[in-house]
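INFO  loader      accepted 1 record
INFO  loader      residues=203
INFO  predictor   begin
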Amino acid sequence: MCRFALLILALFVSDLAHANDYNLIIDGHTFEISLDKRQSIVLADGKRVTVTLSKKPFATFTTEAFNFQYPTQYTPARTNLGEGVHQTMIATPLGTALMVQEYRGINPTQLVDFLLDQIIVDEKAAGYRITKTDVKERTADGKILVGKRAVCTIPGTDLEVSVYAFGRRGVGMSILTMRDNALPDPQGDAMLERFWRTIKISL
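INFO  predictor   done
INFO  writer      dumping tokens
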């Protein structure tokens, strides 16, 4: 299993652990409620009301460097890796995932091959057949991201890993997407499609 897949598993398990813990605060009073569950609560004046907490189908994740829309059944996780690097990840239970890394002091456009090789190092060691191609994507605000894609195959697995980069004047970002083409994941496909349709870069 590649290192990125292990990160996805940890992210998904962590999200499940907090899936139903919500507080509704009204006039300073806190009520514990669950998502998508119709509940009755009594207000401070004695009035009983019925409430339901629900998520919108899509939400927008925003940083100083970029923003994108994502399905709200998943939760982006953002981490400060130190030395001017921030990482944002989002994944489906079936392993379709994307990771965005922001860099200060580094233009990552020359690091695409290195980043891709770091992700698929375990597949190389395991003897997967690996085919690499050049790739390109256009963001919602018209920026062109170039990169590389590796398709790693063994019987029953068709792992597709893509790395894109954008940079200028010592700053930049890389975008990594991963999916197993041998494992149907329509929700993952929709997540990635929404990402590329809405991603805007403000570097």
